[in-house]
């Protein structure tokens, strides 16, 4: 990621004779910043521009408009995986120029959350984007291509200084309530304030015709849609389906924290949600009928782990399992067939006990990992 937390930066400038990898120690040196600021910076061996400054990006954006080129934006925090790539593929089908933003936004992390250890994998991200760029070029079905990466510094994104991450901290914030206060918002009180604030900035900077978000973070999609509607913003929010590992675990940049032992049990949440979905498909509609069997499975899986030896088991805590209205995210007692519903949940995978010598504990030595997932219960038309 290109924030002051950046470790590496891979850029090619037309002023340089060959592509170059700069290893950036924090803080960035002046010459490195200047090179990365060059408006000719690209990901090596591609035409994908790398912008770190709003002014340069705006000049480029203006040119897109003059050339009648539509712009789609895919906001990310980097550490790219297939979920992110699937959104970029969608955007390339529907827009002439796709902008991918890569920015680890500090204000959406709580004071005690994993901002400092959040994975930053710029070189790998650049490689994935280079490969995807080639794939998109070879596939005749696309309207456009990955045109630019927007990887701003925190000084660019927060020109009056970075606001506090404290709940009562002062600053220029966007808050979307009550939808941003429940579920993830209840567990992480500053999260949606940070997300809505950074997305408002990104939308103002890039002025995209369309923005792309993953269903993986379903409450985020509801918050962003509400923000776009209530602030009369001229962009269309498109939601791409959740990409998963073959065993059902939703892809997430945070999965690298798990390590081998916890990874083998991390499907607990998707299994619990699937149980509720099965009941819905079988015609059940009440909260008890849907969440009862789901919570029972969670209890059984937890007991199964507790019966294992400490050096083998994985302890986890279910944070919540929710059945909510798809527009408000408020809990419902009964699913309305005409609206459908959203099943969602969060689980905290606790650090493994009695780690064995040489055991893969995951990035940052296996701190607690909070995983989220959801399933959309589609409306039933009779
Ligand atoms: P992040 O980098 O985690 O902030 O995610 C950037 C975007 O990718 C968000 O819109 C996420 O919802 C989306 N995303 C993350 N994981 C997945 C996934 N497994 N499938 C689809 N989209 C995803």
TrEMBL record:
Question: Keywords in UniProt for this one?
Answer: ATP-binding, Ligase, Nucleotide-binding, Pantothenate biosynthesis
The protein's superkingdom reads: Eukaryota
EC number(s) reported in the record: 6.3.2.1
Its recorded reaction(s) are: (R)-pantoate + beta-alanine + ATP = (R)-pantothenate + AMP + diphosphate + H(+)
Q: Name one GO molecular function term.
A: pantoate-beta-alanine ligase activity
InterPro entries the record matches: Pantoate_ligase, Pantoate_ligase_C, Rossmann-like_a/b/a_fold
Protein's GO biological process: pantothenate biosynthetic process
Q: From the UniProt annotation, give the residues forming the signal peptide.
A: none
| Keyword rRNA processing set for record | no
Please state the pathway this protein functions in, per its UniProt record: Cofactor biosynthesis; (R)-pantothenate biosynthesis; (R)-pantothenate from (R)-pantoate and beta-alanine: step 1/1
What family does the Swiss-Prot or TrEMBL record give for this protein? Belongs to the pantothenate synthetase family.
The protein's name in its UniProt record? Pantoate--beta-alanine ligase
């Amino acid at each position: 990621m290109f924030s002051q937390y950046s470790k590496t930066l891979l850029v090619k400038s037309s002023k340089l004779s060959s592509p170059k990898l700069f290893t950036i120690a924090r803080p960035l040196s002046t010459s490195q910043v200047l090179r990365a600021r060059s408006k000719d910076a690209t990901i090596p061996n591609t035409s994908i521009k790398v912008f770190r400054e709003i002014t340069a990006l705006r000049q480029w954006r203006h040119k897109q408009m003059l050339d009648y080129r539509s712009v789609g934006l895919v906001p990310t925090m980097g550490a790219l995986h297939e979920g992110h790539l699937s959104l970029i593929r969608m955007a390339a089908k529907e827009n002439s120029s796709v902008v991918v933003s890569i920015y680890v936004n500090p204000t959406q992390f709580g004071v005690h959350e994993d901002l400092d250890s959040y994975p930053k994998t710029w070189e790998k991200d650049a490689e994935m984007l280079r490969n995807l760029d080639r794939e998109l070029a070879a596939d005749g079905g696309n309207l456009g291509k990955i045109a630019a990466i927007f990887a701003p510094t925190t000084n660019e994104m927060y020109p009056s200084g970075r606001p506090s991450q404290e709940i009562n901290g002062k600053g220029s914030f966007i808050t979307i309530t009550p939808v941003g206060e429940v579920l993830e918002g209840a567990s992480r009180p500053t999260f949606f304030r940070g997300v809505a604030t950074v997305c408002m900035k990104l939308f103002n900077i890039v002025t995209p015709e369309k923005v792309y978000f993953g269903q993986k973070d379903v409450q985020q999609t509801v918050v962003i849609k509400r923000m776009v509607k209530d602030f009369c913003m001229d962009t269309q929010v498109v939601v791409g389906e959740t990409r998963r590992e073959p065993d059902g675990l939703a892809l997430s940049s945070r999965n690298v924290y798990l390590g081998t032992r916890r990874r083998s049990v991390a499907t607990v949440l998707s299994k619990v949600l699937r149980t509720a979905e099965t009941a819905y498909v079988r015609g059940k509609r009440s909260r008890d009928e849907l969440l009862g069997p789901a919570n029972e499975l969670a209890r059984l899986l937890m007991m199964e782990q507790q019966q294992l030896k400490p050096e083998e088991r994985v302890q986890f805590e279910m944070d919540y399992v929710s059945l909510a209205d798809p527009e408000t995210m408020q809990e419902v007692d009964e699913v309305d067939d005409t609206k459908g519903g959203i099943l969602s949940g969060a689980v905290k995978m606790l650090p493994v006990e009695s780690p064995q010598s040489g055991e893969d504990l995951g990035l940052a030595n296996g701190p607690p990992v909070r995983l989220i997932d959801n399933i959309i219960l589609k409306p039933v038309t009779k």
